[in-house]
Automatic annotation (TrEMBL):
It catalyses: glutaryl-CoA + oxidized [electron-transfer flavoprotein] + 2 H(+) = (2E)-butenoyl-CoA + reduced [electron-transfer flavoprotein] + CO2. PANTHER family: GLUTARYL-COA DEHYDROGENASE, MITOCHONDRIAL. This is glutaryl-CoA dehydrogenase (ETF). Its cofactor is FAD. Transmembrane segments: none annotated. Residues 235-381 form the Acyl-CoA dehydrogenase/oxidase C-terminal domain. Residues 132-222 form the Acyl-CoA oxidase/dehydrogenase middle domain. It comes from Aquilutibacter rugosus. Residues 16-128 form the Acyl-CoA dehydrogenase/oxidase N-terminal domain. It comes from the Bacteria.
Amino acid sequence: MSLNPLDLYDIQSMLSEEENAVREAVARFVDTRVIPVIGNAFDEARFPVEWIPEVAELGLLGSSLPAKYGCAELSSVQYGLICQELERGDSGLRSFVSVQSSLCMYPIYAYGSEEQRMRWLPSMAQGKTIGCFGLTESHGGSDPANMKTRAVKDGDHWVLNGSKMWITNATIADIAIVWAHTDEGIQGFVVEKGMEGFSTQEIKHKMSLRASVTGALFFDNVRVPDANRLPNVKGLKGPLGCLTQARYGISWGPIGSAIACLEEVLAYTKERILFDRPVAATQSAQIKMAEMARRITLAQLLALRLGRLKDEGKMVPQHVSLAKWNNCRMAIDIARECRDLLGGAGITTEHHAIRHALNLESVITYEGTETVHQLVIGRELTGINAF
């Protein structure tokens, strides 16, 4: 029996009919709408906003949230498969969906009032209201508690001052979920586009996530109504809870990048003839591709187990750290190796590898660097905090 080179352990057979249906629907969208144009979009440093209504129509925005808010109410495994297939197209597209779903819709659902949920979630699920997540600051990076942005109560408003950096969707967002220090601890606010003193600026000259909008947020005495404060959380557990949701999706996404790279290089090495034989007929190429398949298989099994734990209510942040660390490292190594096997052709965006390799430089860094997640596991093993 011949094995599927992109699914050696037949993970597909371990998925339910509903899970496979979601995966196949997103895969068709990626194959027909994303892959044909993504190379040019990356070259042009343009996020194709025309995808947004289509992604919304597929039910991919806030897909795990309840149907009463206009969401698909899918399982965690189904959401993971969505992330995998979207990132098979491009990390920028998966980042857009991840930010909208896990970093913006999730905190409104988890920490907001019912009035806030009904006000924003249905339109966000429809892609009519776009969100961004304001936590990271230019000096803070992996130390969010060190944020300088501050909100001070003034009657029935809060006066917000500070800035945020490296924000996906910054300049196209209608609302920003912004975390700031207050006298009562860190709190979250829904800052709306057009509020006086709130401005954004796109970050240019990126060599990674070029088909994604990245920018900075600036707050100069922005008056935010108390009705826009997320009332049900205080402290770092709020933003960190959002990041756990997003990191879960990131644990699946890079598998798609790696699969795209391996699929392409398998075909290319069979067709390219060097020294009178296909590159695929050489021991060195076969060993490299076998190693890729091994690592993808391990990542697939790890992600599926993580998803089952999440659906059972047993997942903890340390589980997510291990999966993000392993699967991002797996994918970036494979993308780089595939670029090498493609030879000179591998440096152009006519092929997938260099684009995925560059994107993964961001994916392995944002929402917890590889080092941070290694230290999370180290602390779990030893009981000693080495941060």
